[in-house]
């Protein structure tokens, strides 16, 4: 009679290899669910690449983390998804702002082009003020027309929870790779810009050499008040891609403050004292500053609202005759004031403050002779105004927006790339102050690292010298399809990586999602390896390029 164990083995075989693979997969699931980057099991280590904790970053080469995986091709979502395809404009393009919070606020507009050409005579902009425009171009970009956030700054308080919410306390942050940059220790943060923007920068680099473009919550201050007779003061200029004070990793880029109003006093005043114009409004990470109100005769006019709000109201204290003082530029323009009765008229002409524009081009960027890229503030125009009796004290113009142009290939500019403040305008006497120029950064970045990766784990200590090792790996064919054991190769070490096994034989054991495969190497003989208990794995990729991007999401190394 057969023994029970013989019957079991003959008629109910147990597939322990499958069970072992499933245990590793369950461990990956636990790691993901608990946001664990690495943890130890009995004779096993699990690395789930939510961060670099389980990886020896000093020994690994060209291993770029982002989006929960390691890859030798670093761009990931760095230059967008290309989901908007190729575009050569055949007319003006006005992008619709999502999640509008009134007439002067809404989410950042995000576009993802493969290649982009804005033809001569055509303008690409947004349909109302908002929290910026982020344009990715995965290929080449040619600007012969106008790419504009002129006058599109948002009326939003960066520290407030309204609308799309508050920005990060340090402002907006966009990370990028740069030759000669410093070691990155943080990534991008577009909190407050809406879900599309937050998702878009999720795959920006968090390691390697580069910088973080930082746009502080508060930028340039508004121009100071103006006393007696004279033009308004210019708004303070925003930082222009300068290394910030928080850390050398940051390059700060900020908006310009609004110009103050002009002032006029002829000695005849009902309010007594000198004429003092309104100061310009302070800028934010989403808007240039607003213009202060103009002032006729004694006392002080109204300041422009901070955070991209309404321009300062004009003020008139003149006791003799009929005169006007104009409001400053903002969202909307400040009220104009007529005569000593201080009756007001809403200026219904152009409004606005300089907006935020970030253009990231992986290939070549060409700005032609007729090309314009602009985040300018708005001049406080005379057009459409009725200022009876002559204007004595003109409102200030708004500050320029922040402009970042990052390109991986060549850059050619024979046109105009500007973040200037709105020019001060004289409506009669006492010219309004010019808005401060916003910061502008034009920089060549690392477009992609299309190299082969060597991903080396940290050391885990076995309880006894193992003779057999197993590897289970979750990989993704991000672009193209990798040939296992050719384009993706794995090794095991018992002496902390001084010596390695021959390449193990990986087997495809099925899918764990779209373009995602489970690779397994079982019962790898490591008995003859140098060393004893200092266990490591190494994953190499080969033949990586723009057409082959092999991504490693998680690795299990077990031994016995």
Tell me about this structure.
The chain has three helices and 41 strands. By secondary structure, it is mostly beta strands. The longest helix is centred in the N-terminal third of the chain and has 18 residues, at 16-33. The model is unreliable at 1-14 (pLDDT under 50). It has two domains: 23-73 and 451-559, Jelly Rolls, CATH 2.60.120; 83-448, no CATH class.
Topology of helices and strands:
Layout (H helix, E strand, L loop, with lengths): L3 H8 L4 H18 L4 E4 L2 E5 L15 E3 L2 E3 L15 E2 L4 E3 L13 E5 L2 E3 L4 E4 L6 E5 L3 E3 L2 E3 L23 E12 L11 H6 L8 E7 L24 E4 L6 E4 L9 E2 L10 E2 L18 E2 L2 E2 L14 E2 L7 E2 L10 E3 L4 E3 L11 E5 L3 E3 L4 E3 L16 E2 L10 E5 L3 E3 L2 E3 L9 E2 L10 E5 L9 E3 L3 E2 L6 E12 L8 E8 L11 E7 L2 E10 L5 E11 L7 E11 L1
Parallel strand pairs: 5-8, 6-9, 7-10, 8-11, 9-12, 10-25, 11-26, 12-27, 14-16, 17-19, 18-20, 19-21, 25-29, 26-30, 27-31, 28-32, 29-33
Antiparallel strand pairs: 1-2, 2-41, 3-4, 4-41, 13-14, 15-16, 22-23, 23-24, 34-40, 35-40, 36-39, 36-41, 37-40, 38-39
């Amino acid at each position: 009679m057969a023994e029970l164990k013989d019957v079991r083995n003959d008629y109910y075989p147990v597939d322990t290899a499958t069970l072992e693979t499933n245990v590793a997969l369950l461990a990956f699931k636990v790691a993901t669910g608990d946001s664990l980057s690495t943890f130890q099991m009995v004779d096993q280590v699990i690395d789930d690449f939510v961060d670099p904790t389980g990886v020896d970053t000093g020994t690994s080469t060209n291993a770029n983390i982002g989006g929960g995986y390691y890859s030798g091709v670093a761009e990931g979502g760095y230059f967008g998804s290309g989901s908007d395809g190729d575009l050569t404009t055949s007319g003006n393009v006005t992008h619709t702002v999502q999640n509008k919070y009134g007439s002067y606020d809404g989410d950042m507009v995000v576009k993802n082009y493969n290649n982009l050409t804005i033809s001569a005579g055509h303008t690409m902009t947004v349909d109302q003020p908002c929290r910026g425009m982020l344009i990715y171009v995965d290929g080449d970009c040619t600007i012969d027309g106008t790419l504009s956030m002129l006058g599109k700054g948002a009326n939003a308080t960066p520290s407030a929870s309204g609308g799309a919410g508050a920005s990060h306390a340090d402002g907006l942050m966009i990370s990028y790779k740069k030759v000669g940059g410093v070691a990155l220790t943080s990534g991008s943060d577009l909190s407050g810009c809406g879900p599309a923007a937050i998702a878009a920068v999720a795959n920006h680099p968090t390691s390697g050499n580069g910088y973080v473009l930082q746009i502080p919550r508060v930028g340039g201050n508004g121009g100071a008040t103006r006393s007696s007779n004279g033009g308004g003061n210019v708004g303070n200029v925003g930082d222009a891609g300068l290394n910030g004070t928080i850390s050398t990793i940051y390059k700060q880029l900020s908006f310009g403050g609004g110009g103050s109003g002009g002032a006029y006093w002829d000695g005849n005043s009902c309010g007594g004292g000198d004429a003092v114009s309104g100061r310009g409004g302070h800028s934010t990470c989403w808007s240039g500053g607003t213009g202060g109100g103009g002032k006729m005769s004694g006392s002080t006019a109204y300041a422009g609202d901070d955070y991209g709000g309404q321009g300062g109201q004009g003020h008139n204290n003149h006791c003799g005759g009929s005169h006007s003082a104009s409001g400053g530029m903002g969202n909307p323009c400040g009220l104009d004031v007529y005569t000593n009765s201080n009756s007001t008229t809403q200026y219904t002409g152009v409004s606005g403050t300089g907006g935020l524009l970030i253009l990231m081009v992986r290939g070549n960027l060409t700005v032609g002779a007729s090309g314009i890229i602009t985040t300018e503030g708005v001049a406080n125009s005379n057009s459409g105004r009725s200022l009876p009796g002559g204007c004595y004290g003109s409102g200030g113009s708004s500050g320029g927006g922040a402009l970042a142009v990052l390109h991986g290939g060549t850059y050619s500019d024979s046109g105009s790339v500007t973040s200037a403040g709105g020019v001060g305008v004289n409506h009669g006497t006492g010219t309004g102050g010019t808005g401060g120029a916003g910061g502008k950064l034009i920089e060549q970045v690392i477009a992609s690292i299309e190299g082969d990766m060597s991903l080396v784990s940290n050391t885990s200590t076995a309880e006894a010298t193992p003779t057999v090792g197993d590897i289970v790996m979750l990989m993704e064919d991000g672009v193209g399809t990798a040939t296992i054991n050719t384009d993706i190769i794995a090794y095991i070490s018992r002496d902390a990586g001084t010596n390695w096994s021959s390449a193990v034989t990986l087997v495809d054991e099925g899918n764990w999602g779209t373009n995602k495969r489970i690779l397994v190497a079982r019962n790898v003989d490591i008995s003859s390896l140098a060393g004893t208990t200092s266990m490591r794995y190494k994953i190499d990729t080969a033949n990586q390029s723009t057409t082959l991007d092999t991504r490693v999401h998680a690795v299990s190394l077990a031994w016995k």
